[in-house]
Backbone:
C-alpha cells in the first residue's frame, strides 16, 4: 500500500532530540512531495527551541535508495531538470548550514539522492549492511543534489571521481575507512548509538555548538587563514558571553550569601 503523500516524513521529539523518518516504501525514494515535506519539517525543528539535535533516518530496510523513477520520468525539459536539481541543492544546502547538528542514521541502502542527503548532514552513522554510492552514471546522468561537490570534499578528489564515474557502491566499512561515515554499527545498535551521540551533544552549550558549526561550515568555503580568523572571532564572542554570564552568576551568589548571613 502506498504511503499517503501527507505522511512521507514523520518526526518525534524526546529529550531535546528530534528523529525525522523518511517513509516512502518500498525504498524511500525522493520525489517532489517528499522533498517539500522534508524541508518544512526540518525548518520547523530548527526554529523549535525544544530541539537541540536532529537525527534523520529511513523507515524499513532502506535509508534512501535514490530518486523516485516516476518523478524522473515526468521531467519534460532540461530547464525542468535543472530546476529540480536547484531545488534539491537549496534544501540540502540549508541542512548543511543548520545551526543545530544533524546526524544521518543510515539504516540501509544509501544511494543517489539518499547519499547526497547524508553528505549534507554533519555526521553519519551506518549499519554494517548498508551500501553507499552515487549510481547516476548508470542512467546516463550525474548527481544533481550536490553529490559531485560534497563527496570529493569529504573523501578526496580521486576516490570520489572513481565512485561517480563508475557508479559503484561501497560497503559501510569501506565508507568508514574513507571518512564518509564515522561509525559502523550492528542493525540493532544504530539508533541507540545515534540517539546517544545526539544526547551527548545536546547536553553541551548551545551557543558553542552553533559557533562550532558555523566555523566548520563557513571555514570550508574560505582560505585557511580566513577560517582561522573566523574561528578567533567566534571564540572571542563566546568568551565575552561566558564572562558576562559568569558575572551574573557570581553576582547572584554574592546576593544570596548576603541574604543568608
Residues:
Amino acid at each position: 500500500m502506498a504511503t499517503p503523500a501527507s505522511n512521507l516524513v514523520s518526526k518525534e521529539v524526546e529529550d531535546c532530540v528530534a528523529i525525522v523518518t523518511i517513509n516512502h516504501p518500498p525504498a524511500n525514494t525522493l520525489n517532489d512531495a517528499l522533498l517539500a515535506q522534508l524541508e518544512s519539517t526540518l525548518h520547523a525543528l530548527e526554529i523549535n527551541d525544544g530541539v537541540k539535535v536532529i537525527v534523520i533516518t529511513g523507515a524499513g530496510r532502506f535509508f534512501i535508495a535514490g530518486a523516485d523513477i516516476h518523478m524522473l520520468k515526468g521531467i519534460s525539459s532540461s530547464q525542468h531538470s535543472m530546476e529540480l536539481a536547484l531545488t534539491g541543492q537549496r534544501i540540502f544546502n540549508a541542512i548543511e548550514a543548520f545551526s543545530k547538528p544533524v546526524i544521518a542514521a543510515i539504516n540501509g541502502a544509501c544511494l543517489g539522492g539518499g547519499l547526497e542527503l547524508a553528505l549534507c548532514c554533519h555526521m553519519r552513522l551506518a549499519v554494517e549492511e548498508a551500501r553507499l554510492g552515487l549510481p547516476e552514471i548508470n542512467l546516463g546522468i550525474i548527481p544533481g543534489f550536490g553529490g559531485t561537490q560534497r563527496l570529493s570534499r569529504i573523501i578526496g578528489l580521486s576516490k570520489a571521481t572513481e565512485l561517480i564515474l563508475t557508479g559503484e557502491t561501497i560497503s559501510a566499512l569501506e565508507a568508514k575507512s574513507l571518512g564518509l561515515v564515522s561509525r559502523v554499527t550492528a542493525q540493532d545498535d544504530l539508533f541507540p548509538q545515534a540517539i546517544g551521540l545526539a544526547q551527548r551533544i545536546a547536553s553541551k552549550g548551545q551557543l558553542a555548538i552553533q559557533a562550532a558549526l558555523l566555523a566548520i561550515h563557513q571555514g570550508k568555503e574560505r582560505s585557511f587563514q580566513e577560517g582561522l580568523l573566523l574561528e578567533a572571532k567566534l571564540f572571542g564572542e563566546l568568551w565575552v558571553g561566558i564572562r558576562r554570564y559568569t558575572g551574573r552568576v557570581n553576582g547572584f551568589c554574592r546576593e544570596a550569601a548576603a541574604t543568608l548571613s
